[in-house]
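Run folding on both entries below.
>entry_1
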Amino acid sequence: MNAIQTRASVRQYTDEPITDAEVEAILRAAMAAPSAGNQQPWEFWVTRDAAKRAELAATSPYATPCGRAPLVLTFVQRRDLRWPSMVQQDMGACVENALLQIADMGLGAVWMGIYPEADRMEAVRAALGLPESVEPFALVAVGHPAVSVEAKGPSRYDETRVHRM
C-alpha cells in the first residue's frame, strides 16, 4: 500500500473544497477500523464552516491548520462502551485508516491530538457544542495540499529497533 509510505502531515491547503463523496470515502475507511469487541466507539463531526474551523484552530496551540483547511473532521469517542480501556487503541486505528484513505486520494491532512488533554477536550466540546455522551479524541484538518507532498524524507525503518529471537 503506497499510502503508508507516502502519507505526510500537511498543514497548508488550497481553497479547493472537499466533496461530499470524498468525505464519505474518508469516513467509510475510518469506520472500517478494527475495535475491541467490535464496539466501534467513534462518531464524527464534519466541519466546513469557516467560523467554526477558526474556533477549532484556537482549541490547541497545534490546531492552527484547522483554520486553513476547507474541512475539519473531529473524531469523538462515545462513553457508553463495554471495553472503555481499549478506546484509545480503537480510535487510533480509526484515525490512521482515515489518514491513509486521505493520502490515497491525493489529499492532505494533519492529525492533531486532543485526548487526554482536559483543556483541549473542553475547548473542542464548547466549540462544537458536543453532548456529554462523547469525548473529543482528535482533529484532522483535510484539504488539497498547497505544496507537493511527494518529497518524502528518508525511511523511518530502523533495524536497531527490531529484536529477533
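>entry_2
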Amino acid sequence: MANTSDIKNGLCIDFNNSVCSIVSFQHVKPGKGNAFVRTKLKSFATGKIVDHTFPAGHKISVVRVERRKFQYLYKDDYAFHFMDNETYEQVALEEKMIDQPKFIKEGAEIEILFDAARETPLTIDLPQYVNLKVTYTEPGVQGNTATNATKPATTETGAEVRVPLFINEGDIIKVETKTGNYMERTKS
C-alpha cells in the first residue's frame, strides 16, 4: 500500500474498483486545516476523467502495469486486433480503450498497457508522432497564401488533418497523435 505522498503523473491506482491513471495532481497545504492532494484520474474502463481529492496521508492501492509491444493487425465491427510478435498471441481491444484510434496504421508497432495481476489489457500507448500518407486533399490555389492558411486532408487511416496549402496527395506528413495536429512534411 502506498499513500498520497507517492502520487505522480502516470501512476495507476485502484479507485472505486476500477483501474485509473493519474493525469495530474496538486499537493495543497491551506493556511487552515489539513493538507490534501487534488487529482485528475482517468478511468481505463470508461475513458472518463474524474476529479478527486485525497486527504494527506490517505492510503492508495497501486496497480502494477506492464508495457508490451504488439503489432496492429486490423479493425472489425467490434474491436481493434493486435498481435504479440514473440508469442503470436492476439488481443482485441474495444475502440473506447484507445485514445486516438484514427492514427493507428496497419502493421504499426504499439505498446499496450496490461494490468499485471489480472493479465487484462488496459489501454494503448501510441507513439507521440506518426507518419501518414495523404490520400485526398484539394489542390492549393496559387496566390492564396494568407498567413497560416490550411485545408483539410484525409490520410491513409481515414483521419482528417488540417494541413498547409502546399501539401498534395501522396505526400507523407508527420502528425502529433495526442492533438491530431500537422507537424511537418517528411520524405518517408
